[in-house]
Amino acid sequence: MSLLKRFIAHINDQHLFQKKDHLLLAVSGGIDSVVLCELCHQAGFLFEIVHCNFQLRGEESERDEKFVLSLGEKYHSNIFIKKFDTNEYVRQNNISVQVAARELRYTWFVELLTEWSIINPSECRWLLTAHHANDNIETLLMNFFKGTGIAGLHSILPRQGKLIRPLLFATKDEILEFARENDLSFVEDSSNLTDKYTRNYFRHQLIPSVQKVFPQVEGNLLNNIERFREIEILYQQSVRLHKQKLLEEKGNEIHIPVLKLLKTEPLKTIVYEIIKDFGFTAHQTDDVVHLLKSETGKYITSATHKVFKNRNWIIIAPVNTLEANHILINEKDKVTDFELGELRIKKYDLISEKIQTPNNTAMLDADNITFPLLLRKWKQGDYFYPLGIKNPSTGRLGKKKLSKFFIDQKLSLTEKEKIWVIESHKKIIWVIGHRIDDRFKITTKTQNVLEIDLC
User: Fold this and answer.
1) What domains sit in the chain, N to C, each tagged with a CATH number?
2) What are the CA-CA distances from residue 305 to residues 115, 243, 288, 321, 338 (Å)?
3) What is the DSSP letter of 261?
4) What whole-number distance in Å separates Cα of residue 352 and Cα of residue 109?
5) Residues 331, 346: Cα–Cα separation, whole Å
6) Which range among 167-176, 405-414, 427-436 shows the weakest confidence by mean pLDDT?
7) Any residues with CB less than 8 A from the CB of 348 and at least 6 apart, and which?
8) DSSP assigned state of 92
């Protein structure tokens, strides 16, 4: 069966869209998106073209834009083009170029679809991308090695909301053959030839190496993707049943009986599926499991929630409903406002281990610090290991309660009432404006510095 017939059959079998629907085709100018245009044209679908110019490759980016404009003329299609200052977006958000391009691209796609739905609420419009079977294999392997869990093993889905990938059934070789048969012109993205990007390394190095041992690896992995999708359906059904039995909603809190949760199998998997919806990571799963057998009052935080033990219950509550004067600082937060002013946080490589800082600046060993940080007022019982203070009898770091430290510093009652501290993983790292904890100081082994300034 020809690629065109399989394309039409795949759309019909998967109920991806109908002939009367309005289609937006995301077109870069590369061979995959050019073939998608031609298939939609030969199948009789009406479509418009959208193109992102990320302005990352100089003249090559402008060449791609001009080529896509020529495709609009060829297919008599409207064209939407958006230029992005990608490098500036990378700088502002401190993310990789790949992540920036993805965020910019899909944010714009959503805007286009939303605008259409407002103007034409009774009509369907879909955005199509040219992801194919080989993209799916690469995504599967990258997700597997990153450890995204079973949800990542279904790889790229044929439909997510208004986004459709109708070429996932076709391999790259089939797309190349169709382009040759139809004498299609396209442009080459020079960045696809380098192994600088993770996907290209998998494409050019890893998969070809595996094929030398398992020649049928691509077909086997595509079959596995289908199996994984079905397994995920069964998995999610089971997770939902466990949640129904375990979770009790009380206002904006979730209450879970400890004894019932401890009897649940597999415990770690169920715990992760519960906490991940509240901003907790897979790495925090073991901490929550340990919390089940800890004493009352122990807790773990995410950027938005806190999990704590209260007698025979585990309670998940939003941070903004917890104790007053508690502020969570996430790793991406550069400025945090609070009662004493604002905290400004930055991270950089160590230049010199001999750094003199004023009281309003803390310079810490970033590799010893775990986010999110907890900014709060001090309370009775708090202690830390003040920088430079050792026990005279043992020579070890001197543990000191904050109340005693304040007496030594000759702070008045009014001054003590204004003291705030910052915690990392339940350890005070800085008594703001006074002293850092010796355990987090910069040493000869420090490679990365976390600087916190009170302004």
Assistant:
1) 3-225 (3.40.50.620), 253-321 (3.30.465), 326-454 (no CATH)
2) 34, 18, 13, 9, 19
3) H
4) 46
5) 10
6) 405-414
7) 448, 449, 451
8) H
Residue 355 has a pLDDT of 52
- Among 87-96, 118-127, 170-179, 283-292, the minimum mean pLDDT is found in 118-127
Q: Would you call 131 helix, strand, or coil by DSSP?
A: coil
Q: Residue 105's CB: how many other CB atoms inside 10 A?
A: 19
**Number of helical H runs and strand E runs in the chain:** 16, 22
Report the 10 Å Cβ neighbour count for 118. 8
The token pair at 408 is 């030594």
Whether the CB-CB separation of 343 and 335 falls below 8 Å is answered with yes
Residue 277 has pLDDT above 60, yes or no: yes
> Which amino acid does the sequence have at 193?
L
**How are beta strands 335-338 and 326-329 bridged, if at all?**
unpaired
CB 360 within 8 A of CB 412: no
Q: How far apart are the first and last CA of the chain?
A: 69
pLDDT in tens, 333-386: 888 888 888 899 988 876 544 455 677 899 899 888 988 888 888 988 889 999
Contact 138, 203 (CB under 8 A): yes
